Amino acid sequence: MIYYFSGTGNSKAIAEEIADYIGTKAIDIIGADIDQIHLEDEEYVGFTFPIYAWAAPEVMLQFAQKIKVPETAFSFAVCTFSNVAGMALQHFSEIIPLKSGYGIVMPDNYPITDHIIDTKESSMVKLEEARKRLDFIKEKIAKKEEEFDVKMGEDAKTRTYEMAPVFNREWRKTVAYHVSDDCIGCGLCERKCPAKAIEIQDGKPVWIKEDCYVCMACLNYCPVEAIDYGKYSKGRFRYFFKGFSKENY
Question: Which ranges form a coiled coil (predicted)?
Fold first, then answer.
């Protein structure tokens, strides 16, 4: 069994492909019934998720705290990120001891700060490399090789253990989202929001919760780029996973 959290599709696609390769299922943790999770007979138990501020998303950490993975299962995690992962997998392993862990560099879907993000061209290069990386990881997991192979970056411990909690406490506010008159009222943002933080009112999205996962699904899936966050996202490249081939974009 592989459990995933995914905002714009990267981790979902990876979970589904690995699951198909090793002969198991991929399950979205959003809406999963904890009481119906029984892993005693599972050969593999995996987790895939994006990295938010050098850690696993808080919603994934909370999910992991509620389940019990048997020692007999081959437990693993695969995280996706645009640059580095910090000590996210080590941190996650404190909740569920992992036997292996991997990272896959994917296009940046976070155009909300002043850092340099991917263009369409650089995203295609990353996807080409990610395709090769995923094939490599699938074989490693199928063989149950115990290793950790992820790019942590500098100051990894500080970023994961000190900065990530600040992100979860202070930077997941929905107040920074805003929508322009270009909005066509399609409701896709409401349907894609895993936090159920959006409601269409009078034909436009309204953020009805103070906090969300800041997964940027609403911003990246919007077909007319009417949703922005803060002052940096307007006019910048939007991305959600459509496949590993550039022909999909």
Answer: 120-147
Q: In 3D, which of 111, 90, 109 has the Cα closest to residue 164?
A: 90
Spatial distance between the Cα atoms of 129 and 124, rounded to a whole number of angstroms: 9
Mean pLDDT of the chain: 96
The residue type found at 39 is L
Residue (of 176, 183, 206) closest to 112 by Cα position: 176
Do 153 and 186 reside in the same domain of the chain? no
What's at 105, amino acid-wise? V
Alpha-carbon torsion, ordered 22, 92, 198, 235, to 10 deg: -90
Residue-range definition of the domain harbouring residue 195 = 173-241
Backbone angles phi, psi at 153, to 5 degrees: 85, 180
User: Is the sign of the CA dihedral 1, 94, 5, 18 positive or negative?
Assistant: negative
Burial class of residue 181, CB neighbours in 10 A (0-12, 13-18, 19+): exposed
* Length of the chain (residues): 249
Is the dihedral angle over the CA atoms 193, 196, 197, 203 positive or is it negative?
Answer: positive
Query: In whole angstroms, how large is the CA radius of gyration of the chain?
Result: 18
For the segment 212-241, what is each residue's pLDDT rounded down to a tens digit? 999 999 999 999 999 999 998 999 999 999
